[in-house]
Amino acid sequence: MDIAADWADISQGLRKDLGQQLHSQWIKPIQPGPFCKETGTLDLYLPTEFSANWVSDRFADRLSLAWKIARPDVRHVRISVSPARRAPQGLRFGEGSRRSAEAPVPAQPGDALGMGAAELGTLGPNGFGMGSIGLDPSLTFTTFVTGSANVLASNAAQRMAATETPQFAPLYLKAATGQGKTHLLHAIGHAYLAAHPRARIFYCSAERFMVEFVQALRQNQTIEFKARLRGFDLLLVDDIQFIIGKASAQEELLYTIDALLAEGKRLVFAADRAPQALDGVEQRLLSRLSMGLVADIQPADIELRRAILEHRLQRFAPTHVPADVVEFLARTINRNVRELVGGLNKLIAYAQLTGQAVSLQLAEEQLTDILSANRRRITIDEIQRTVCQFYRVDRTEMASKRRARAVVRPRQVAMYLAKVLTPRSYPEIGRKFGGRDHSTVIHAVRLIEDLRTRDADMDGDVRSLLRQLES
């Protein structure tokens, strides 16, 4: 049995069913264990008792059914804490000081406070590990593509990871889902660790912070929790919008921020909304989160989406992806960068596994779900209205017979955009422009295409209009 391969397929399916947030928080940490052929029982391990109980209560039936479909030999699944986690570990509360400074600590995801931010390497005199895991090795500043939409956040993140003391602290990254805030969090961790090899770095989600704090309260380990958390040099907290409800957990995070800032430590938070828009968070904590620099990451524009695809394609050489396919993906998958990269990965994987050449037709066939979710229905009326506002001409000129250059060129641009951004045929477009013949529309489209290659001003106008219409 290829347990790992089956779990990868099952996990992907659950991600689609449950959504990214639930999957990342509870399903992704699951590690398949041994399979007993005699009883048909497969062990699934989670990093903490709390998470094992939570997943068992809510997803046991779903996991069992998924495995039975994937592997009929699996008749039962058993969800529990990994045996390696049950034994006393050097990174556990109150245990580290009993380990020798020379004794290596096995790296296990989630050892640091049980929050998916484990440490590795040797133990220092205080029992804390040096170095950090829990950071995705592919999410670095080198692989982060910068454009006008994210340049402020990117520069601020690099400054936060530099050797010199950052001017603004803490750093708060605000972005919608899939726009790169988590990428920058990981990149800061990697860069800071490269500049400070013995630094203690901690990365977690706000939700996991709350879960583990509550667990520490129940186990009377709050002192160890506080001491451990405040011993880090760099604290990275993702999805801070989920730190809601528990006043005690918010208060502890507030005190942690104050303590780390007072010692010159570095803190970075990420969320999908501004601090002032966080629900259920007390005012004092909101004040701390916004006291440094709040850096927005705007949705990637068409130029940045093209650059991301071109950068990503370097990994897939020698697979050839035609320019029209890149343009199609960049223009069509515009909700977030994660979907854009995922669509490219899926397309290339399908082409490689089936031996087919990457083409526009293949992209449209294989990325139906992603494309339909991203397509915003732009109407010809909307295009005409936007073009008229841009060129300051009356809306009636789109259908008029006037042939003055000041009117003809905006009309031709509108016809071109109608062909690029809508599924309408040439005759249908012609009818929306005063009943013009389809040959007139074809001429307009070809003319604007040619002008864009020769006239920088025209290309700039079209790009600006595309941004307005696609935003």
What does this 3D model show about the protein?
This protein has four domains: 84 residues, GMP Synthetase, Chain A, domain 3 (2-Layer Sandwich); 192 residues, 3-Layer(aba) Sandwich (Rossmann fold), CATH 3.40.50; 73 residues, Helicase, Ruva Protein, domain 3 (Orthogonal Bundle); 91 residues, DnaA protein, C-terminal DNA-binding domain (Chromosomal Replication Initiator Protein Dnaa, Chain: A), CATH 1.10.1750.10. The protein contains 20 helices and eight strands. Strands 5-6-7-4-8 form a five-stranded parallel sheet, with helices on both faces. A three-stranded mixed sheet has the order 1-2-3. Helix 17 crosses helix 19, helix 18 crosses helix 19 and helix 19 packs across helix 20. About 10% of the residues have low confidence.
Estimate percent helicity.
Answer: 40-55%
The number of helical elements comes to 20
Average pLDDT metric? 81
Q: What does the radius of gyration come to? A: 27 Å
Strand content: 5-15%
Biggest sheet overview: 5 strands, parallel
* CATH C-level category of the largest domain: Alpha Beta
Helix and strand pattern = HHEEHEHHEHEHHEHEHEHHHHHHHHHH
CATH topology of the largest domain, what is it called?
Answer: Rossmann fold
Would you count the extended β strands for me? Answer: 8
The oligomeric status of these chains comes to single chain
CATH superfamily of the largest domain: P-loop containing nucleotide triphosphate hydrolases
Q: Within the largest sheet, what's the order of strands? A: 5-6-7-4-8
Indicate the structural class.
Answer: alpha/beta
Terminal residue distance: 48 Å
Please name the CATH architecture of the largest domain.
Answer: 3-Layer(aba) Sandwich
